[in-house]
Amino acid sequence: MFDLEEELKKLPASPGVYLMHNDRDEIIYVGKAVSLKNRVRQYFQSSRNKTAKIEQMVSHIAWFEYILTDSELEALVLECNLIKEHRPRYNTMLKDDKTYPYIKATVGEDFPRLLFSRDMKKDGRSRYFGPYTSAGAVKDTLDLIHKLYRIRTCSRNLPKDTGKERPCLNYHIKQCDAPCQGYISKEDYQKSFGQALDFLGGHYELLLRSLKEKMEQASEQMEFEKAIEYRELLNSVKQVAQKQKITSSSMEDRDIVALARDERDAVVQVFFIREGKLIGRDHFHLSAGAAESEEEILDGFVKQFYAGTPFIPRELWLQYPITDSEVISQWLTAKRGQKVRLVVPQKGEKERLVELAARNAALVLSQDKERIKKEELRTIGAMNQIGALIGIGAVRRVEAFDISNTSGVESVGSMVVYEDGKPKRSDYRKFKIRTVQGPNDYASMEEVLTRRFSHGMEEAKNLRAEGKELSFGSFTRFPDLIMMDGGRGQVNIALGVLEQMGLSIPVCGMVKDDFHRTRGLYFNNKEVPIDRHSEGFRLITRIQDEAHRFAIEYHRSLRGKGQVRSVLDEIPGIGPARRKALMRQFKDIEAIRNADIQELAQTPQMNQKAAEAVYHFFRKTGGHSFCGGMCADVKTHDNQ
């Protein structure tokens, strides 16, 4: 039993991170403190002035735990990681989990390249441009640069590999000067590459003037095709240049961050300024309660966003001052390797740009409000409907399982995962049934569930022994709810596996009617009806369909690999060459089965002995023991 008063007395006056749990052991809040003793005790002191949000959170705290750190900076880093991992209910949460593409210039190479990248490595041999707000923007920019400056795209080790292979297609379409053949000197190539870097840095004037002169010159010389080519390049460069609508007198890299909010949502707008030019912008949706101040929302965003982005600018211009500005500045400075300043502009150009970002955020909030509500109702709202329907409260992660086979051949299991109402395909898993012979779906499901959870428990044990976080494991994240593609039988199988392993996870079955349509959920030994027009019902249907699809696709892939091999390769003396020859001659297995010995022997690659082996094999087995999908269509078995 957790004794609150006793545990509060034990709190150390040291920096660290504290985690608040509710009565279901869910982490509902993560915070950091310079002094855990002072900070955590404040939550439980009635004399303190607390916001409505904090009052509500405290009413749900059943117990807390804490992790000591050596400094407030370490506590900040740990807090960011834990919030991202557990997504606590009462923390301001960044809904968007975006990663941004960059253009990587491999300046450390003799013949450098420009590459698409989502990571930034401080190796001293590369320079990065971005972030760009879409992968398409990076591709378009790289395509234009290759046309303009003919920078190589290959991974050859130059100049070491010069002349070893023929020039690639890019050379023939005039998008590379073939340094791999020595057709351009290192000095000339470096000069072109330098011009490409200037282009990425936003210096377009000389290029525009040069392209215009070349276009006019080609036109005067009646070289109209070349003139059209220069005109198209000129228009492409102008389109890129027109995106630079905001310029700053300073050439620093900076992000401008401002927000707009209503009673329950907030949108943060970020302008990305690189070398004084606006190269892109993006907006981010956050869940924020009415009791939270703008400063608190902005503080939460900065910590979550810059924990995940690889590029840290020299300055952040913020709409409001944030509580942890000093320690956040230290943290960002450590990530960047240079001093990072947090500025709240008060007047002039800086204030104008922050206000512009705020107006953009307000516009996005008003335009997207209805769309966001619909999406939340379809995803998170649907998950909550399912949880409320069966009485287990909030549900964030669901795992659904299905079995697929063809008359017991090549049985497979599938596990699909939905988080916050959306498929998390990186967590999908496939299982090839190992211990079950024949079409026994119950035994197959028992094997799948046993392997899934035993693997997860073993992984967790090993990670703890190594002192690593459980997030490093591929099976360590357990669901809030297990959904079985069937009724009482499937549910009882799952409950038996969980009981044997000492796990307590709710399990429900997705029950279907006589027309194979979902009609309700089977939970706690009774069928729970569900409104067919509700978002919860639609989500259940999507989960069920996805589990079917994933299992069937895996099963078909195994059948495809084993269709011919499963029959002919089981015959002594029939290898790949004879198998191919037989299929060319007779077209299908049925024709091979009906052929006599003489017809088989006359097939190329075959002889009398091999023909007799094939003939007697089909007469002995009927050719069905290993049909592997040639003799029947795939089925999914839904024992309810």
Account of the 3D structure:
- With 640 residues, the chain is of the alpha+beta class.
- Mean pLDDT is 80; it is low at 243-250, 562-566 and 622-640.
- The longest helix is centred in the middle third of the chain and has 31 residues, at 348-378.
- Helix content is 44%, strand content 18%.
- It folds into five domains: 4-91, 3-Layer(aba) Sandwich (GIY-YIG endonuclease), CATH 3.40.1440; 102-202, no CATH class; 254-377, Nucleotidyltransferase, domain 5; 384-560, UvrC, RNAse H endonuclease domain (Nucleotidyltransferase, domain 5, 2-Layer Sandwich), CATH 3.30.420; 563-636, DNA polymerase, domain 1.
**Poorly predicted runs of 5 or more residues:** 243-250, 562-566, 622-640
Supply Rg.
32 Å
Cα(first) to Cα(last) distance is 41 Å
Number of domains: 5
Q: How much helicity do the residues have?
A: 40-55%
Shape summary: flat
CATH superfamily of the largest domain: UvrC, RNAse H endonuclease domain
